[in-house]
Write a structure and sequence with these properties.
- Helix 3 (65-75) runs parallel beside helix 4 (96-117) and helix 4 packs parallel to helix 5.
- The chain is built from 10 helices and 13 strands.
- The protein has a 7-stranded parallel beta sheet, with helices on both faces.
- Helix 5 (151-170) links the parallel strand 5 (121-127) and strand 6 (174-179).
- It is α/β, with parallel strands linked by helices.
- The protein has helices at 11-22, 39-49, 65-75, 96-117, 151-170, 192-201, 221-232, 269-280, 304-310, 318-333, and strands at 2-6, 26-31, 55-59, 79-82, 121-127, 174-179, 182-183, 206-209, 215-216, 219-220, 256-261, 267-268, 286-289.
Length: 337
């Protein structure tokens, strides 16, 4: 297949592209290489992709309406994995327009490209953040998600609604994947694992929000990639059991699906930090702080629907995943010092 992977210089995008290339697909990777975080890290990820003869990189912003339309018309993609987005909950409090441009305008450009060029299946990144203030655990795709607590979360829920509209109006198969705190080698520098590891190695204190009283369903990147590829290979279809009188927001009577991808094992933040300390052989100095605006207390994925759909459940233990990240971090950064 010829697959478009947007956000190909990103953490998950690079990993998905490598997996598709390894199995023989042709991959066009798109990214705007913005400076939300260190561009050199993005370039290093791309350096792993460029040697593949079946890979081609396109430098473009998903918000470029004419550019995206021309790309779709030229390439005639079979399937699309849309991972490009303005990420981060806290940054959305400071720069909301970046989320509108990338996550809303960019997403409708993807939908339009898929619609007009007959793409077989659009798989896109949603987020566990859509569950917002929900307290019922674990989070099920059938739960209402009408109370986001950050603009980032609101844009991800908007993506799901927009996708459903295109599935309904144009028969475009769309599948949204609600990622739960993805971590691992080549991860984003704005994520807790990266921030904590760097600070501990540099002898600086780490900021621990809500005094450590938080739970996160940390999901290892290889598990996420496996889920993405399996879902990509099974195009969304109408749910024969869908009941419009009692609607389930994760399915429909049109080719539309939404799934959680999480580890099904929420980890206390202080246990997460202890795993980092163990992997580094150092103790962190913790600066205990109140809960930040936009943060939620806990995330916990119900992944039964994903398992029923593609026969897969994420399961990498947190200590094992953190050890792999720390090994990568030391290999990538410390020799440069």
């Amino acid at each position: 297949m010829k697959v478009l992977v947007t956000g190909a210089a990103g953490f998950i995008g690079m990993s998905v592209a490598l997996r598709l290339l390894a199995r023989g697909d042709e991959v066009v990777g798109l990214d705007n290489l913005n400076d939300y975080y260190d561009v050199s890290l993005k370039e290093s990820r791309l350096a792993l992709l460029r040697p593949h003869a079946a890979f081609r990189f396109v430098l473009m912003d998903v918000a470029d309406r004419d550019g995206i339309a021309a790309l779709f018309a030229q390439e005639k993609f079979d399937r699309v994995v849309h991972l490009a987005a303005q990420a981060g909950v806290r940054y959305s409090l400071k720069n909301p327009h970046a989320y509108v441009d990338s996550n809303l305008v960019g997403f409708v450009n993807m939908l339009e490209g898929c619609r007009h060029q007959g793409v077989q299946h659009l798989v896109y990144a949603s987020s566990s953040s859509v569950y917002g203030g929900n307290t019922k655990m674990p989070f099920s795709e059938a739960d209402p998600v009408d109370h986001p607590v950050s603009l980032y979360a609101a844009t991800k829920k908007a993506n799901e609604l927009m996708a459903h509209t295109y599935s309904h109006l144009y028969g475009l198969p769309t599948t949204g994947l609600r990622f739960f705190t993805v971590y691992g080698p080549w991860g984003r520098p704005d994520m807790a694992l990266f921030l904590f590891t760097r600070a501990i190695l540099e002898g600086r204190p780490i900021d621990v929000y809500n005094h450590g009283n938080m739970l996160r369903d940390f999901t290892y990147v290889d598990d996420v990639v496996e889920g993405v590829v399996r879902v990509l290979d099974r195009a969304a279809s109408a749910d024969p059991a869908y009941d419009a009188g009692a609607p389930d927001s994760a399915t429909s009577n049109v080719p539309y699906r939404v799934f959680n991808i999480g580890n099904r094992n929420p980890v206390p933040l202080l246990e997460f930090i202890a795993c980092i300390e163990q992997a580094l052989g150092r103790t962190a100095e913790k600066r205990l702080l109140p809960l930040q605006d936009g943060d939620v207390l806990a995330t916990y994925a119900d992944t039964d629907a994903l398992n029923a759909w593609v026969g897969f459940l994420p399961a990498t233990p947190i200590a094992q995943g953190i050890k792999k990240f720390v090994d990568w971090y030391k290999g990538y950064y410390l020799p440069q010092r």
